[in-house]
Design goal:
17 helices, 7-stranded mixed beta sheet, alpha/beta, 525 residues, FAD/NAD(P)-binding domain
Length: 525
């Protein structure tokens, strides 16, 4: 093994993917160092004290099902991760005139609820929608470790039948409402479900539910892991995952350094040979992994002088937008639903995850307002109160809440966005108060962030937590830079290991996992 370099591998960014790659490579006996500019680990899946005495999730707050074997190979339980099962995954509300859609973890209870509240046709339609999504979702390979996906054109060319080809085209090029109208056509009886499905299609895009291409995010959201599984919380917050991975790294002989900012990747004759820190120190390595997105990696760390025109053009076309406002609350008590939803207060689990989903037409209007630089009148809102399930996150007697409002006018002039952020924060609280009328009197302390904060603190281009929105041209093979590789780049020995890689966003560990295996093979271990 070549030992002339300071390290075998340097990993830039201690988010969950960067740390997963670091832990796996250290487990192979490689000399690995992970560098993080912030004083905490986890990145946009980190947890830290933002409000006094609380453990607040910085970004991601729910763990979706993991690919088979990932949890065991990363030894999450061994290094202290505790998972919390959720009796109720979400309480979805549309209006006071429509019944709530409660997503129970128990499938029989869930089916009974949908039948009772929305009827047999809604139940059949929802099942058919899920079934429709599974074929294109399987082609996206969201839960397959180390997969190298084809392009959309290749998928269409290899479709086994004309029917399957049309299904792929609808999933990748159609709008969410093409699917909603097909499977849940009754705008009155299916109102809440229609709104919910429309919202599932837009929260990781810069599209409205009627916009072509929005159906793909719906397919991505509804993709099912063959191993099964449901959403879970992590005790102590999502950052507990990365904190556990840090312990794993150290145990295996690797290193993690926080408060250590990387100024640039050092490139010599088209090859990454190390990094230069902000303080001017250089660290050499046989390979460099970046968990940052593509513009942050290539324009921020590598430099355009090392890139050819085709790569520059490719990266400049990637759509990155963070059209959201993030609020964090410290609450003196658990807020209560008002009429006509008081019956939901009987089970506190209904307040763990409240989603306000306006009609699809209002969601489209919110998107249009956002594009005009205006705060939408009826933004979709999601609020989690994780202390319903985990009291360790707040001081005794208090709760915390984390809230997102969508379609923030993120492309308004920068000098206007602070005012627009505060205006939207008030709009979000007003929206929540329509259903939780005592919310304002419950709030002890709050913090408000927009995507500009994500850009500054996490290095995410335009505050885009997806590292490349879930748009058709940016998924599957569209996320690759080098044919036949999910992680290699045109700069030799520079690899990507974050959510900008296939399969994309979400706390899955798959980008970091795949990058670790690819780099280990390249280094001959």
């Amino acid at each position: 093994m070549n030992t002339t370099a300071d390290y075998d591998v340097l990993v830039v960014g201690a988010g969950h993917n960067g740390l997963a790659a670091t832990a796996l490579l250290a487990g192979r006996g490689l000399r690995v160092l992970c560098l993080e500019k912030n004083g905490y680990v986890g990145g946009m899946a980190g947890t830290r004290e933002i409000l006094k005495g609380c453990r607040n999730d910085v970004g991601a707050s729910l763990l979706f099902p993991l690919a088979e074997g990932i949890e065991d190979e990363l030894e999450l339980t061994r290094y202290g991760v505790e998972f919390i099962e959720l009796p109720i995954m979400a309480s979805n509300l549309n209006s006071k005139d429509s019944p709530p859609a409660i997503f129970y973890s128990n499938s029989l209870r869930m089916a009974s609820h949908v039948l009772r509240r929305f009827g047999v046709r809604a139940m059949i339609g929802f099942v058919r929608l899920m079934a429709f999504c599974q074929y294109p979702a399987s082609l996206m390979d969201r839960f397959t470790p180390r997969s190298v996906p084809p392009t959309l054109d290749e998928l269409l060319a290899k479709a086994p039948s004309e029917r399957k080809r049309r299904q792929i085209e609808l999933a990748f090029k159609g709008s969410a409402m093409d699917l909603v109208d097909r499977f849940l056509p009754d705008a009155r009886k299916h109102r809440t479900l229609r709104a919910l499905v429309a919202f599932a299609a837009v929260q990781s895009t810069y599209k409205g539910p009627f916009t072509p291409g929005s159906a793909l995010c719906l397919v991505y959201t509804f993709a099912m892991n063959e191993g099964g599984g449901l959403m879970r919380r992590v005790k102590g917050g999502m950052g507990s995952l990365s904190e556990a991975l840090c312990r794993s790294v150290v145990d295996k002989g690797g290193e993690v350094r926080t408060k250590t900012a990387v100024r640039r990747v050092v490139v010599d004759a088209g090859k990454a040979v190390g990094v230069e820190l902000r303080d001017g120190r250089r660290i050499s390595a046989r390979a460099v992994l970046s968990s940052l997105d593509k513009p942050a990696t290539f324009f921020g760390l590598v430099g355009r002088e090392h890139l050819d025109t085709a790569l520059i053009d490719r990266i400049e076309t990637i759509e990155h937008r963070g059209a959201f406002v993030h609020l964090i609350f410290k609450l003196r008590r658990l807020p209560s639903y008002g009429p006509p939803f008081e019956h939901l207060n009987a089970d506190p689990h209904t307040r763990f995850n409240t989603t306000l989903v306006p009609d699809p037409e209002l969601q489209q209007a919110s998107y249009d307002a956002c594009r005009r630089g205006e705060v939408p009148a009826h933004p979709p809102v999601g609020m989690q109160i994780p202390t319903v399930m985990d009291r360790s996150l707040a001081p005794e007697g208090f709760h915390i809440a984390t809230t997102y409002g969508f379609f923030f006018p993120c492309e308004a002039p920068k000098d206007e966005r602070g005012k627009l952020r505060d205006e939207m924060a008030e709009r979000i609280i007003d929206r929540l108060s329509e259903f939780l009328p005592d919310l304002r009197e419950c709030i002890v302390e709050q913090a408000v962030f927009s995507s500009d904060h994500f850009a500054a603190m996490q290095g995410a281009t335009h505050g885009d937590f997806t590292h490349g929105l879930i748009h058709p041209e940016q998924m599957i093979g569209g996320r690759l830079l080098v044919r036949g590789s999910a992680h290699a780049t045109p700069i030799r020995d520079l690899y990507l290991c974050g959510a900008s890689c296939h399969p994309g966003p979400g706390v899955t560990f798959l980008p970091g996992y795949g990058a670790a295996y690819e780099v280990a093979e390249a280094l001959g271990v």
